[in-house]
Amino acid sequence: MRATTTPAAGRPADQLLAELRGLRAADAPTRGGRTFAYVYDAGLPDVDELAAAAYGVFATVNGLDPTVFPSVARLENDVVRAVSAVLGVPGAQGSFTSGGTESILLAVKTARDHARAVRGVTRPQLVLPSTAHAAFHKAAHYLGLETVVVPVDPLTFRADASAVADSVTDRTALVVASAPSYAHGVVDPVADIAAAAAERGVLCHVDACIGGWFLPFLARAGRPVEPFGLSVPGVTSLSVDLHKYGYADKGASVVLYRDAELRRHQYFAYAGWPGYPVVNPTAQGTKSGGLLAQAWAVLHHLGHDGYTALARRVAQAADRLLPGLRGTDGVRVLGDPAGSLIAFTVLGPAGTPDLGLVLHVADEMRERGWYLQPQLSCDGLPPNLHLTLTPATSDRVGPLLADLAESVTAARACEPVTVDPALAELAATLDPDTLTPEDVAGFLAFAGLDGDQGLPSRTAPVLALLDALPPRLKERMLTEFIGSLFRI
Questions:
Q1: What range does the record give for the signal peptide (predicted)?
Q2: Is 464:448 a contact under the CB 8 Å cutoff?
Q3: Of 255, 256, 257, 249, nearest in space to 288 by CA
C-alpha cells in the first residue's frame, strides 16, 4: 500500500485504526512464540496491557527537562536503581535510554571523552571481539574512534582474552565484552577481559543488552552463570535492555557506570546560544515519558520472583530445544549457548556448514509459519540460523523441531544455491564509493531486491549473493535497498 498525503478533511478514528490493523496483519507476529528474533514475549497478556496503560498516563510528558516534570527524574532514578541493585555496585549511576544502540553509543562517547580528559588520548581506539554488536562500530563511526577487531575462538565463539589484551595500546579508550554476544549467544570471559583492561588503565564495557536482565534471574533459578556485572573488577560500564528480557515495550534500556564521575562524560551541556541552557544526559533531547513509565511499571509488576519464573521457563525451553537440535540429522549447534540465544548451522554432504542449505531451511521454516533469523558467514565463522527463546516459545519446542526436520529434508531437495563465479569476480573489483545510483539499481534488480516489490517470497538466492559480496559492497547494496523501501 502506497502512503498518501494528509487529507484536507479528516478521517474517522475507527477507519484509521482499522487501516493500521490491516497494515499490521502483514507483519511477522510479535506474540505467540513463532517469531524467533526481534520480539520478546513474556506470554503474559497482563504485562502488555499494563505497559500500554502506563505509557498512556505519561505519553504527553516531555522527558527533556526534569525540573519541569519532576516525575521523570523520580521514575528514572527508580529504574536505574532497580538495575543497579542487580548489576551494579555501591555508588553506581546510570541513565535510561531508548535502546541498546543508544546505550552503547553513550558508553563509547563516555570512554572517548574520559580517555581525552584523563589520559590525553587524541586518536582513540575501540578494542572489541569480532562478535561484538554492530552498534559499537556505528558508535565508533559517529564518534571518530578507530576500531580494533579481535578474532574469536572459531569453535567456542568466545572472545580470546589474551588476544584482546595484546590489542590494547596507549590509544585504547574502551575494551568490549559481551554477555552474551548476539550472534551465537555465548558469554565472553568478562573477568579476564576486564582485568586486562584495568591493568592498562583502560575502561571496559560489558554489552549485556540482551543478557543483562535474563542471566541474573537464570542464576537465581539455580543455573550456573559467570559474573559479568559491575561487581567484576575492571568492568566500568554496562548496558542492559529492558525491552528484551525485561519485557517492557521498545525502547527501554539502561546504561550503567561505576560512579557519577565517569557518567558525567556522557552528558552534553551547552550554554552558548540565546535559548534555554541545554543539558542532555543522553543522545535524545525531547522524549516522551511514556516509555520510561511503562518500563517502570513492568519492572515493578513482575518483580524478582516473576523474572526468575520467566527465566526458568526460557531455560526449560532450551533444555528441550538443544538436545532436539543436536539430534536432528545435519544440524550443528554453534558454541555453548548461555540459555536464551541459540545459533545452529546445517551441514552439507561433506559434513561442513552449507550456506545454501542454511538459507533454504530459513525459507522452508518461514513457509511453515516460523521466523528464524539467517546470519551469513563472516571471517571464517559459519552461516547459521539464529533463535531467540522467550517464555512464549516454551510450549512451541516440539512443533518447531518437527517442522525443522521436515524443512532440512525439503532443503536438501531444493535446487542448490549458486552464485555466478563471473558475477562474484566482477563484484570483487567494484568500488562501492564510485558506483552510480544506476549501477546500484541494476545490481539490486539483478539480485531480486526491488524496493517497490519488497523481498521475494524465498530469499535464499538473494542472501547467497549478498554473502558472496565483499563487505563494503554488501553494505552499500543493503543501504541502497533499505533506502528504496523508504521512498515516497
A1: none
A2: no
A3: 249
Report the alpha-carbon distance of residue 298 to residue 51 in Å, rounded: 6
| 132 backbone φψ class: left, alpha, beta (φ>0; ψ -120 to 50) | beta
Assign a CATH topology to domain 54-300: Aspartate Aminotransferase; domain 2 (3.40.640)
356: which residues sit within 8 A by CB, 6+ positions away? 348, 414, 416, 417, 418, 460, 464
DSSP-based three-state secondary structure for 207:
strand
Domain residue spans of the chain:
54-300, 421-486
User: Which residue in 10, 3, 205 sits closest to 105, CA to CA?
Assistant: 205
Listed residue (308, 190, 292) closest to 238, CA to CA: 190
Q: State the average pLDDT for the chain.
A: 91
468's CB contacts (< 8 A; 6+ apart) are 419, 423, 424, 427
**Residue 8: which residues within 8 A CB-CB, separation 6 or more?**
none
Pairing between β-strand 146-150 and β-strand 373-375 as defined by DSSP bridges: unpaired
Distance of CA 483 to the CA centre of its chain: 21
Find the angle CA(265)-CA(269)-CA(275) to the nearest 5 degrees: 175
Asked if residues 288 and 62 have their Cβ atoms less than 8 Å apart, the reply is yes
The share of the chain scoring above pLDDT 90, in percent, equals: 71
Residue 34 in this model has a pLDDT that exceeds 50: yes
Does the structure show a pLDDT above 70 at 2? no
In terms of Cα–Cα distance, which of 213, 210, 242, 228 is closest to 96?
Answer: 242
> For the whole model, what pTM was predicted?
0.93
Return left, alpha or beta for 275; rule: phi > 0 is left, psi -120 to 50 is alpha, else beta.
beta
Q: How far apart are CA 68 and CA 447, in angstroms?
A: 53
Dist CA 78 CA 367 (whole Å): 44
Q: Is 43 left (phi over 0), alpha (psi -120 to 50) or beta?
A: left
pLDDT of residue 1: 45
| Average pLDDT over every residue of 257-278 | 94
The answer to whether the CB of 174 falls within 8 A of the CB of 108 is: yes
E strands within 46-184?
Answer: 93-97, 125-129, 146-150, 172-178
What number of CA atoms fall less than 13 Å from residue 377's CA on the CB side? 18
Nearest to 202, CA basis, from 229, 226, 167, 178? 167
pLDDT for residue 259: 96
CB 389 within 8 A of CB 350: no
Residue 28 burial (10 A CB sphere; 0-12, 13-18, 19+): middle
Per residue in 86-142, pLDDT tens? Answer: 999 999 999 999 999 999 999 999 999 999 999 999 999 999 999 999 999 999 999
